[in-house]
Amino acid sequence: MSTKSNSYGGIWLIVAVVASDYPNLPVFLDKHRWLCAGGGHLLFKAASIVDDPLAKIIAAAGCELLQVKDSGIYDAWNQAMDMLESTTLTNDCYVAFLGIDDTIREDYCLAATRIAQPPTQPDFIYGNALKVSNGRAKYQVSPLMPKLFGKNNYLFDVPHPGLLNRWETIKKFRFDVRYQLAGDFDFYIRIANSMDVTYAKMPKVQAIIGADGMSNSLKALEIYPREWAMIASSYQVSLAVPRFKIALFRALATVPPLFNLLRRIAWLIRGRTY
Questions:
Q1: Cβ atoms 19, 52 nearer than 8 A
Q2: Tens-place pLDDT, residues 79-98
Q3: pLDDT tens across 225-258, in order?
Q4: Using CA atoms, how far apart are residues 81 and 101, in angstroms rounded to an integer?
Q5: Residue boundaries of the structural domains of the chain
Q6: Of 126, 176, 185, 181, the residue nearest 155 (C-alpha)
Q7: Rounded to the nearest 5 degrees, what angle is found at the Cα of 7, between the Cα atoms of 57 and 44?
Q8: Looking at the domain 11-273, which fold is it?
Q9: Phi and psi angles of residue 9, each rounded to the nearest 5 degrees, phi first
């Protein structure tokens, strides 16, 4: 008789889902069975009631399910963090946020567990990313010294899906629900502003990230410049987002066919078959 190991017992994944995501839950679970088998934890935050057969599949996999109405992704993550805070989750655990179209990598988590040991645990552990869209993939290399964890001139230069956050570091913070897309940028800037954070980069792909969601849409070109300005003015900090990028976003937002064409060309040139 095999016994469940505890290799990943200190890792929690929070996955916020809406009704349209529910059919994809079994596939997501199958891709992360290694985590559950290794003692890791999956918490699904559902915005509406999950049908009983699917809820039983989630329970049978040893995963948690929180079914509470929310106002959006950042409210959902906050609710999940509230639930974790009410449990016996220890300070030395790590929490990561994923979308239903993301897959955290096993070799990355295994490498992370080797350095995530008290008393010298880093606040954040991250790696590189593989972004996928319509059968194409692009490799994103993260810097050794991210601007995200500095004290000014911030840039979201590490992948968020699969970024491992030490629970003691983030547990008193919550996402600002006024944001539609830049709430995670705001979240990490507030943390970095409040303390001297430590971090470690793993020479691994931390996650395979779906690149067809809201953050990569035409609507995002309108939202990001506005929300970046909110962040800069709220905390009196500078952002390392080039002005030409902001101007380009605003211009492309007014010409949808051009945006769609340039996006397809960029994926053909920079991507590879996946």
A1: no
A2: 999 999 988 789 999 999 99
A3: 999 999 999 999 999 988 888 888 888 888 999 8
A4: 21
A5: 11-273
A6: 185
A7: 30
A8: Spore Coat Polysaccharide Biosynthesis Protein SpsA; Chain A (3.90.550)
A9: -60, -20
